[in-house]
Every structure is written in C-alpha cells, then in structure tokens.
Design a protein that fits this description.
alpha+beta, globular, TATA-Binding Protein, five-stranded antiparallel β-sheet, 29% helix
Length: 87
C-alpha cells in the first residue's frame, strides 16, 4: 500500500527502541530485530500495520494495512513527527 525509505541518523538500536515505545503508546505490537520485523498501531482512524527492513543506514518501511481514508503522505508525516531520528 505505502512504501517509505528513511536514512537513519542514530544507531539502529535507538530507532528500534523508539518504534517499540510508539507501538506500546498506541496499543500496538512490535516484533523484530536490527534486520527486519513488523509493527502494528491502533489509531483513532483504524489500524496501521506493516513490515520493515534495515540495510546499513537505511530503514525501509512497507505499510500493508491502513484505513482507506488515510493517505500515504499523511502516514509519512506522522512517522516523521513521532520518529524524528529518521531523515
């Protein structure tokens, strides 16, 4: 549905900890390691789920489930807002 690639500005462990905290904050789930994993969040508009892979200093995020009315641009803006360590 949506695909994003971000350059990591901090160590991978820092990014993964922020993603884990975000999942907890939004009653979601986070399963993964420094190479790949999956994340799910429950937002007021509905659920968002996806997978990620990390290769060097790049994080690739693929959103596989999202509310129909929530566009990829809005998802990207929220990701950048809540995970400012990504560029």
């Amino acid at each position: 549905m949506c695909q994003f690639t971000y350059r990591l500005q901090v160590p991978v462990a820092t990014v993964l900890e922020q993603i884990r905290q975000l999942a907890e904050q939004y009653q979601g789930e986070f399963h993964g390691d420094e190479h790949s994993g999956r994340i799910g969040l429950s937002l007021f508009l509905g659920s968002i789920a996806g997978t990620y892979t990390i290769n060097g200093d790049e994080l690739r995020l693929e959103i596989t489930q999202k509310p129909f009315l929530l566009g990829c641009g809005a998802i990207d803006a929220v990701i950048r807002q809540y995970l400012p360590v990504l560029a």
